[in-house]
Amino acid sequence: MESGMSKAARLRGRLDVRRPALAMAAHNPLAAKLAAEAGFDAVWGSGFELSASYAVPDASILPMGTHLEMMRAMGEVQDAPVVADLDTGFGNAVNLAYAVPRYAAAGVAAVVIEDKTFPKDSSLRPGGRQELVPMAEFQGKVAAARDLGGGMLVVARTEALIAGLGLEEALRRGKAYAEAGADAVLVHSKQRTPDEILAFCRAWPGRVPLVLVPTSYPQLSFADIAALEKVGLVICGNHAVRAAVAAMRATFRRILAEGGIAGVEGEIATVGEIFDLQGDARLRALERDYLR
User: Fold this and answer.
1) Cβ neighbours, 10 Å, residue 285
2) For the segment 1-50, what is each residue's pLDDT rounded down to a tens digit?
3) Do 231 and 258 share a domain, yes or no?
4) Which CDD domains match (predicted)?
5) Residue 210 shares a structural domain with residue 96
């Protein structure tokens, strides 16, 4: 299995603003394996998706240990670099300083931290509480992650547009975080059109590549983003759990409506496919080699 630092180096080399890397969200190792199988360049270890999988709000409810072990497990079953969504970093810069080496030891390739207060509120929740920490305070977090991450990429996420602070404040914060040592800057927006994000990208001076999460403005294609020549990574932020919820709901309702399971058999994965995803062939090989 490839090391986390080797994966970090591979991901760093893929942050090409002329052809941005693509990351798919995951909330468990199975989703991570499917994302890699599909051909995505990286796996987004989404805090939103993980919270949803536990049926709790995306509001710093789950403990760090739960998130950390899930990131480790995602990296153990497939070879795509894992980009861990650390939200606000579990507290202040000191909390983050303790957390970051643990993520490096778990084989994570990159961490993303955002400049909101702890505990966070989901960026896309209507009427959410979006409060930012002072810029200098967040620069300290970026520096801690950079100094103690052992080579992991550090992505600084500014929520200035989410908080309604405007383009100039978002640019000011993004530049400051790059100066503090961030390898990339993630800028987020909840506007239903990409105009706000496009204005930010065009004004960005290009010190480090940008990262986009086009959940709210899906009409912006990957080709449109590449044409900007500012963005190194595009994250499909929550599509795994949303797809899973939609598929499970449809299957469950049909089974109840039809009074049996026969009708869904041709539309769901076979048991054999699940065995393959579980690594059944390796299990059988181990049995042949070592069971006496």
Assistant:
1) 11
2) 778 789 999 999 999 999 999 999 999 999 999 999 999 999 999 999 99
3) no
4) ICL_PEPM
5) yes
pTM: 0.95
- All residues at 6 or more sequence positions from 277 whose CB lies less than 8 Å from its CB, including other chains: 30, 33, 34
Pair 48, 91 in one domain: yes
Rounded to a whole number of angstroms, the CA Rg of the chain reads: 20
> Which is it for the CA torsion 230, 233, 238, 240, positive or negative?
positive
The C-alpha atoms of residue 157 and residue 88 are separated, in whole angstroms, by 9
**CA-angle at 224, arms to 49 and 123, nearest 5°:** 30
Show the tokens assigned to 82.
């894992």
Show Cβ contacts of residue 287 under 8 Å, excluding neighbours closer than 6 positions. Answer: none
Three-state secondary structure along 58-75? CCCCCCHHHHHHHHHHHH
| Contact (Cβ atoms closer than 8 angstroms) between residue 154 and residue 142 | yes
134 plus 249 within the same structural domain: no
Does one domain contain both 107 and 170? yes
Lowest-pLDDT range of 75-79, 136-140, 144-148, 205-209: 205-209
Domain with 34 in it? 4-239
Check if 58 is active-site.
Answer: yes
Number of domains the chain contains: 2
Share of the chain above pLDDT 70, in %: 99
pLDDT tens sequence across 227-285: 999 999 999 999 999 999 999 999 999 999 999 999 999 999 999 999 999 999 999 99
Q: How far apart are CA 219 and CA 182, in angstroms?
A: 28
> Are 57 and 169 in a shared domain?
yes
List the catalytic residue out of 41, 58, 85, 87: 58
As beta bridge partners, residue 111 has 84, 154
pLDDT (0 to 100) of residue 129: 72
